[in-house]
Amino acid sequence: MLALKVDSKQVVGVTLGLVLGLTLALILGSISPAGFRGILDSLVWVYTNPVPHVFTLTLLSPIACAAVGLTVAYRAGFITVGSEGQILLGAIVTLWLVEYSGLNLNPQVAIPISILLGGFTGALLGLIVGVLRVYFNVNEILASLMLNYVILYVSNHLASGPWRVGPFAITRSVGEEYRLGPLVMVFVAVVLAFLCWFLLTRSSLGLAIKVYGRAPRVAETYGLNPKAIVLSVALLSGFTSGVGGALMMLGFQHSLSPMSVSPGYGYMGVLVSWLSSNNPLVVLPASWFFSSILVLGRSLQASGLPIGYVLAVQAVIVLSVMIARRLSGRWW
Amino acid sequence: MDTFLSIRGVRVVYPGGIIANDDVSLDVRRGEILALLGENGAGKTTLIKVIAGLVKPSSGELVLDGVRFKPSSYRDALRNGVYMVPQMPRFFDGLTVFEDILLTLRTAGRGISGRDLRRKVNELAGRLGFKVDLDSYCWSLSMGEKQRVELLKALLLDSKLLMLDEPTTHMASHEFRLLREMLRGLASEGKSIIFVTHKVREALDIADRIAVMRKGRVVGVFKGEEVDEDILIKYMFGESNGPAGLALETYKSLQSPAGKPILEVLDLWVRGAYGQIAVKGVTMVVGRSEIVGVAGLAGNGQRELFEAIIGLRKPARGRIILDGEDVTDRSPAHRVRKGLAIIPEERLGWGLAPGLSVVENVAFSLLPVNSTIGGFLVDWRKARGVAEEVVAMTNVKIPSLDASVDSLSGGNMQRLMVARELYKKPKLIIAMNPTGGLDLQTARLVKSMIVASSRSSAALIISEDLEELLEVSDRIYVMSSGVVKGVFEKPFNVDAIARAMAG
C-alpha cells in the first residue's frame, strides 16, 4: 500500500555504493597533502568523538528540511533545484525580522514567526518556478537555478550595502536570545519529514503526486489536475527549504556576508533526496551522513585539504549509490 | 525473371506469445515490385524487419541471391545490399542532408569523399528526375522529400533489394505518382522492391505482384493484372461468417432499445500530433444502453477522436456533448466526474501508473468519482476493500494488492484496468482497442464485461479488430482518412464495411 518500503536489494545497492564512494574518497584523499593517514584519523574522530556530533546535528537541519520537500517534488517529476535560493531567502527574511525590522519581538514569538516567515517566502519563490512551468512551459531546472543566483546577489547586495556594519561586507548578527540549539533544529526537520511522509502515503494529493510523477498522461486522462499537482509541490518544497533557511540563520549562520553564504546546503538537499530514493523518512539518516561528511571536511581543511574535496566526495557517493541501485534493479 | 530473395518458413514470436509471422514463405524476383498488402497487425512490417536484420526469426531461413542469408544486424543487411525505408524515415534533424547521407554511407562501411558524393548525388537525382538541396537541414524536409533522400541513399549504397514500409502515409498524391515512376525505373534496372501497404488501390497501382498477408500468414500471391479490388479485400479481411460469441448474444438480448443520446459528437475537427488535420468533420451519436463501434485501419484519425472525446486534445471545431451537457471546453476531470469510463489502448503509462501498486492504481482513478474511499485523505482500509472487489471482477488471482502493477501480465493488467473503469458504474464507456494483443480467453472476458456493463450505460468502442466490432456493436461507423466513410446498422454487410475501410 505504501510506496515507501525498503527492499533488500536496494539496501545491498546502497551499502555497496557507500563503500565504493568512501573507498574512492580515501584514494582521492591519499594523493592530497593530508595523506591516507590524515583522512583516516579525521574519519575516526568525526564518528567517535562527541564534539563533531554536535556540529553534525547542527548542520543537518537545513539539508534535511530542503531534502524532505524535494522528495515530494521529485515524486511528482518536478525537478527543482531551487532549494539553494529558498534556503538563503529564508535566512534573509529571518535576519530581517530579528535584527532589521525594528520590531524587537521577544524570542518566544520571534522564533516561530521567523520559521514560518522563512517557509512562506521560500514557498513564494517555489511558486514562481511552478507558475513558470505550468503556465509558460519553462523548464523548472533552469528557472530555479537562475533564481538561486538572483537571491545570492540580493544577499550579497544586502551584506555589502544597506545592511552592512563596520568596514567589512557583513551584516549584524542574530542576537544571542534568538539563537537555536541543534535539538530544536533537528526536531523541526523531523516534524517536516513526517508531514511529507504522511502527505505522500495517506493523502489523495500524495497519491495524485505519485501517479503524475510516474505517468503524467495517466493523471491527465483520469481527471487528476496536473496544474494543481505541480503548483502544490512547488509551494511545498519551497516551504520546507525556506524553513531550513530560517533554522540555518538562527542556528549557526547568524549573519550574512558574501564570504559566509551557504556552502550549498540546498544542492546537498537535492543529492540527499535522490540518495534517499525520494523517501522523506530515509532523508533523516541520509542528511545526517552528508552533514557528517561536511564536518569531516572542515576538520580536513586544517590538514590543508580544500573544501572542494568534501563536495567531490559527496558527489562520488551519490553517483555510486545511484549506479549501484540501478544495477540492483530499481531506480527508487 | 529469377528469384532474388527467397523467404522460407519464417516464424516470429514476440514476447508475450504474439505470433507476428507464422510460417511465411515468399519469393521476391529480380527486377519486380512486390506489394505486401494487409491490414494493421497482419505481420508485414515484421517480415521486412526480419529481412533487414532488425528482428530475429525463431525459425525459418532466408536465401539471398542463391546464398543463405542470416543478417546479424541492420548494418549487416545494409552491407549485403538490403535497404529498408521505415514508415517514418529517421533523420538527424540537426544535420544537413549532405551530412546525413554521408553518415549513412559511413555506417554501411562506404568511404566516399565529400566532392565525389556531391557529384554522385546530383547525377542520381538527375536520373530519378528530382532536385535535392544537399545543404538544407533535415528538419526542413517534408516526408515525401525524406522518402526521396532515402531512395538516394539506397542507390548510393548499390542496394539490390529495397523495402519501403507504408511510404505513402504522409504523402500527397502527386508525391505518390513521382515515387511510383521512380520505383518503376529502379525495377527496370534489375532492383527488387518490396512495397508494404494497407491500401488496396495503391498496391494495384504500383506492383507487379501482390502478396496478401493476414494474421501473420501469406494467404495469397497474385499477379497485378490478374486480380481486382474485391478479391484482394476478401483475402485481406478473410471470409466473415458473422458474429461468433454465443454467450455475448444472450447479453445482447437483455439490452433495452436505444434511449436518449449519452454522447453526441457534432462536426468534430481535430488536429493530430504533427498539426495535420486528423479528424475531419465527424458526427456520431451513442444512445443509452447502446454499443457503437468505430472501425477503420489504424492511423485514420481514431486516436485523435478518442483523445478529443476524453478531453486530452482540444478540437479545432465542433462540439462534444456528454449526457446532455456541452463538454467541448471542459477539463478531462469534469468529464470523468460526469461518468466517463476510459479504456485507452496502452495499459501501462496511459491506463495504469507504472511503479504503483494494484490498490494505488485502483484508488487514484476512483477517488474523483467515489467519495467513500476518501476525500482529502485516502481511507486505505476502504480502498483495499474496493480494490478487492475490482480484482474479483477480473476473474484471475492477482497475487497481492500491494504488488506493483508492472509485475502483472499484459492480460491481467487489461483485466484490472477494465474492471476498475467499469466499477465506476459509468454513464459512458469509451474504449480503444480493448482486446488488442490479448489471448483469446482474456479478450472474451473483457468483451463480455464491457457488453454487460453497457446495458446500464453506453459504450463507444474504437477498434482495429473488425470481427470484434461485428460481434458486439449495435452500429458501426467506419473511419478512413479522418472522415466517417459509412454508418452501418445491424445486420452488417461485411463486404461493404471492408470496402469503406479500405478507403
According to DSSP, the number of beta strands of chain B is 20
Helix and strand pattern of chain A: HHHHHHHHHHHHH
Number of helices of chain B: 17
**Number of domains as seen in the coordinates of chain B:** 3
Low-confidence stretches of chain B: 240-257
Strand % of chain A is under 5%
Strand order of the largest sheet of chain B: 6-7-8-3-9-10
Q: Classify the helix fraction of chain A into a percent range.
A: over 70%
The biggest beta sheet of chain B reads: 6 strands, mixed
Number of helices of chain A: 13
The percent of residues in helical segments of chain B reads 25-40%
The shape of chain A, in one word, is: globular
Report on this model:
The complex is a heterodimer of chains A (332) and B (503). With 332 residues, chain A is mainly alpha-helical. Chain A has a domain at 59-261. In chain A, 76% of the residues lie in helices and 0% in strands. Chain A has helices at 8-30, 35-48, 50-75, 83-100, 107-136, 140-160, 182-202, 204-214, 216-221, 226-253, 265-275, 280-301, 307-327. The longest helix of chain A is centred in the middle third of the chain and has 30 residues, at 107-136. With 503 residues, chain B is of the alpha/beta class. Chain B folds into three domains: 3-237, 3-Layer(aba) Sandwich (Rossmann fold); 241-339 and 427-442 and 449-503, 3-Layer(aba) Sandwich (Rossmann fold); 352-425, no CATH class. Chain B is 35% helix and 25% strand. Chain B is built from 17 helices and 20 strands. Chain B has helices at residues 44-51, 74-79, 97-107, 114-128, 143-156, 173-188, 200-206, 229-237, 246-253, 302-310, 332-337, 358-366, 380-393, 410-423, 440-454, 466-472, 494-501, and strands at 3-14, 18-29, 33-37, 59-64, 67-69, 82-85, 161-165, 192-197, 209-214, 217-223, 261-271, 277-287, 291-295, 317-322, 325-326, 340-343, 428-432, 459-462, 475-480, 483-489. A six-stranded mixed β-sheet of chain B has the order 6-7-8-3-9-10, with helices on both faces. A six-stranded mixed β-sheet of chain B has the order 16-17-18-13-19-20, with helices on both faces. Classes of the chains: A mainly alpha (332), B alpha/beta (503). The interface between A and B is medium-sized, with 22 and 36 residues.
